[in-house]
Specification:
The chain is built from 6 helices and 7 strands. Strands 3-2-1-4-5-6-7 form a 7-stranded parallel β-sheet, sandwiched between helices. Helix 1 packs across helix 3. It is globular and about 55 Å long.
């Protein structure tokens, strides 16, 4: 097994963006509601099931500003998001601010993981990191499942320490039916 640095750059970044927009815009729920006739039976043309969040002016914190992290940052910038990042070193990127992990946790409205799994990053997202995040913040992981302490994340989601986790990776795939995150309303998990 080897790492192919440029493989999947755009598709993985696009998936992270899709998960973010799925969470904020509720497209599937609204489309289903229209399909079942809910909007047609509503007298108000501004029918909506839930509040839709706007990402303009919000802060995206990226951990791992490699090819995929940088690509996702560009997509988020096109929506007007501010970018902060943590990496092995300051890359001196224009319009993107290098910060330490604690600052990233407490500043970001969305934290997105784009780093390898190794001794330094194993369970990087743990109880301490999660407790430092904003209570309305999101966590996105399209990188490696082992970056997150699953039990700490379950606790943070159940206690609403953070708003939601949008995950495309887990430590064990496919997950067992009794996986600690499956079934939580604020954990969106894709295969």
């Amino acid at each position: 097994v080897c790492n192919v640095p440029s493989y999947g750059t755009y598709s993985v970044a696009q998936h992270a963006l899709a998960m973010l927009l799925h969470y904020s815009n509720h497209v599937a729920e609204h489309a289903l509601s229209v399909k079942t006739g809910d909007w047609s039976s509503c007298e108000d043309w501004t029918y909506t099931l839930t509040r839709i969040s706007e990402w303009y002016g919000k802060t995206l914190g990226i951990i791992g500003m490699g090819n995929i992290g940088s690509c996702f940052a560009g997509m988020a910038e096109s929506m007007g998001m501010n970018i902060i990042y943590h990496h092995t070193r300051d890359l001196q990127l224009p319009n993107r601010r290098f910060v330490d992990l604690n600052t990233l946790a407490k500043t970001a409205d969305v934290v997105s993981l784009h780093c390898p799994l190794n001794e330094k990053t194993d369970k990087l997202i743990n109880e301490k990191f999660l407790s430092g995040m904003k209570s309305n913040a999101l966590l996105i992981n399209t990188s490696r499942g082992g970056l997150i302490d699953t039990i700490a994340l379950r606790e943070a989601l159940q206690c609403h320490t953070i708003a939601a986790a949008l995950l495309d990776v887990l430590e064990k795939e496919p997950p067992p039916p009794d996986h600690p995150l499956i079934g939580l309303p604020n954990a969106i998990i894709t295969p």
